[in-house]
Design a protein that fits this description.
Layout: H1 2-21, H2 37-43, E1 46-61, E2 64-78, E3 84-90, E4 106-114, E5 119-122, E6 129-130, H3 135-141, E7 145-146, H4 159-188
Parallel strand pairs: 3-5
Antiparallel strand pairs: 1-2, 1-4, 2-3, 2-7, 4-5, 4-6
């Protein structure tokens, strides 16, 4: 009996120390609180429909992978400040509340401003859906404001800013070369 008790305690010690030394994988599960579209409209900073025009690479933000998406906004209900909006989505699978948006697809988006990085963030629990599946939500939201570039004073695709940057850079380079040339010429005299 004594020997049996010692064996049981030894086995229990080995199992316990094994669990302590080799813990299992970390498990993350996503569980979302259901809310209706009107509640989400009140809760989130930005609400719009738009098409994904650019899908950025994965990056690390506060221990999580995130990906930046650029949307061409069609209609807005709240918080839209430009025709093209950048939204940061939690990267990964649905088990970790990650969300993936496909390029050239349109979505109903709910996003919140994260004051730590001053960017709009969203995830699986935000209630984002492809526009084709958002019929009931869009009816409840009502008619959004159709968004155009003129609403924000945008008249081009941002290309003129690059041209101006190149032009100003060229002028500065020419001025620097002229100053060096004049300085070297005066040294010779």
């Amino acid at each position: 009996m004594k020997r049996w008790l010692v064996m049981c305690m030894l086995i229990l010690l080995l199992v316990t120390s094994g669990l302590a030394l080799f813990p299992g994988e970390k498990v993350y599960a996503c569980s979302c609180v259901e809310s209706d579209v009107q509640k989400r409209l009140e809760t989130y900073t930005t609400v719009f429909t738009g098409k994904v025009v650019k899908k950025g690479g994965s990056q690390l933000y506060r221990y999580n992978g995130v990906r930046e998406y650029t949307f061409d906004v069609d209609s807005a209900w709240k918080g839209v400040s430009a025709k093209k909006m950048k939204i940061v989505g939690k990267d990964g699978g649905s088990d970790s509340c990650g969300i993936q948006f496909e390029k050239n697809q349109s979505y109903l988006i709910f996003a919140s401003l994260d004051e730590r990085d001053n960017r709009l963030h969203t995830n699986l629990c935000s209630g984002n859906v492809p526009v084709e599946q958002a019929g009931d939500d869009l009816k409840l939201l009502g008619a959004g404001k159709v968004v155009s570039k003129e609403d924000f004073g945008e008249t081009n695709d941002g290309r003129s800013e690059y041209y101006l940057l190149i032009l100003y850079g060229g002028v500065i380079l020419l001025a620097a070369l002229a100053i060096v040339w004049i300085w070297k010429r005066k040294k010779r005299i």
